[in-house]
Amino acid sequence: MSWLRTLLRNNGLSLAFGALFLLSLLGQAWSGLADFNNQQLAHGTQTVGMGDYLTSSSFAVDVAENWQSEYLQFFLYVFATVWLVQRGSPESKPLGKIGPENDRDQVLGRHVRVGSPRWARAGGWRTTVFSRSLGLVMGTIFLLSWLAQSIAGVSAYNAEQLSDFGDPISWGEYLLSADFWNRTLQNWQSEFLAIGCMAIFSVYLRQRGSPESKPVGAEHHVTDETG
User: Fold this and answer.
1) Based on the domain organization, do 212 and 172 belong to the same domain?
2) Are residues 209 and 136 in the same domain?
3) pTM here?
4) Residues 1 and 34 both lie in one domain
5) How far is Cα 53 from Cα 36, in angstroms, rounded to an integer?
6) Is the sign of the CA dihedral 85, 89, 94, 100 positive or negative?
7) Cα maximum dimension of the chain
8) How far from the centroid of its chain's Cα atoms is residue 114's Cα?
9) Could you give phi then psi for residue 112, rounded to 5 degrees?
């Protein structure tokens, strides 16, 4: 069983958060179903089971609007930290390394190592794509989640309109609607606030043993140093 202990130790962060994700998604499904059925009863319509709720636009839009805001956060942070710095923050690069940096710093070109990823050693377009792959993947997931939110959102919105004897609207009209932008911006503002707080709080506050924090005894002005 030593291999299992090693697997759990080496992948503890991803496994722990993966488990927390599944548990919270399950909790959202149960609480969301209860809330949905309460609304159904209030409108005098029939309640639904878990299977129907999980495939409903109501559940899909709630999940997608949270995913798109989270991946927008990562996408913007990955790209912003290339060019923007915060003096004293472990979340920031050193003040003198603004920009994409040189090949030596990035272990590229004649500086690649034997164990460097294949696409980093390949050169040409593959290295260009690989050197931006993290931001590209985060941005793609954000756009797909945002698209899913809009599609599920217009379906959920129109279902509510019909239950209230209102007129349904098209997808294009929904993209310009207050409902779509309210759902979107209420998530964005919280993500932007969280990023900004993490960047500035980590200048003056510490968490012993965390790579997201500077060493406890480090001076406040020390940048790009983790404990």
Assistant:
1) yes
2) yes
3) 0.87
4) yes
5) 8
6) negative
7) 71
8) 32
9) -65, 155
